[in-house]
Amino acid sequence: MATHPDRPRSGPPLWRRLHLNPPLVAGAVLLTVLLLSAIAAPLLATAGPMDIDLRAVRQAPSAAHWFGTDAVGRDLFSRVLYGGQVSLLVAGLGMMGSLSFGTLMGMLGAFGANWVRPIIDRAIDIQLAFPYVLLAIAITSAVKPSTPVLVLLMVLAAWAGAARVVRAIALQERGKDYVKAADVLGVSRLRIALLHVFPTVLPSLMVLAAMQMAAMIVFEATLSFLGMGVQPPTPSWGGIMLDGKNYITSSWWLTALPGLAIVLTSLSLVLIGDGLQARTDALRSREGDQ
Predict the structure, then answer these.
(1) Each residue's pLDDT tens digit, 238-264
(2) Which long-range contacts (CB under 8 A, 24 or more apart) does 20-23 make?
(3) pTM
(4) Could you give the angle at the alpha carbon of 243 between the alpha carbons of 242 and 245, nearest 5°?
């Protein structure tokens, strides 16, 4: 068969040229849909999240109420949309706070003074060994539950995991020749940590951010379900499930549908984390081959 030299050869698909992979693409698409739904809640909601209609108490999903109604007649679809705003915002703040503090502690654990590093190591061990639910109960019993307290609990519960990952990567990089060469040339520890080692930590931090965001979604829902998170009447996914826990057998949609939102959001973030990890491993192996 004759060939046409003038016809351009089709290269690899775009997602391969960008070093993407199916889990990353699928997770990003799903998360984008969920985020846009939460952001566009005022446009998509069929009723106000606080509007009470005692004539429509615990109605099953229908054309009038897509997700049904709760025990006081509030439209569940609207509450799930607005609850997504609260849950995603709180989880995002908790994730950013825990990663920021954990990264600082992890870098200090690798490049800090000799007396600082053992203290940080013991603090990480103690935090990882302490059950976060007991920590949450202890703090919320001392102060009134609120959204700032919930974010603080998220940071306290997750910073140690981030610090351990960052510290391990930083210590591994510290033993490499380029760091030793910079040290011999008189480059300060702070400059080495920020300009040479921290960029190598960033890919793993991106993976950790996706995984921790998924954990924070579940963490927020757990504490709100236990009454220690976002306080009513502000809707959150965990709080909506708390409102419907007494009607699980008769009105399944009150807990199943907000629970489905939590599952889908966590799934999208886990897929993104897995995809980023695979992408990072592929790029590192390619650099090693070169």
Answers:
(1) 889 988 888 888 889 999 999 999 999
(2) 20/275, 20/279, 21/275, 21/278, 21/279, 22/275, 23/271, 23/272, 23/274, 23/275, 23/278
(3) 0.84
(4) 60
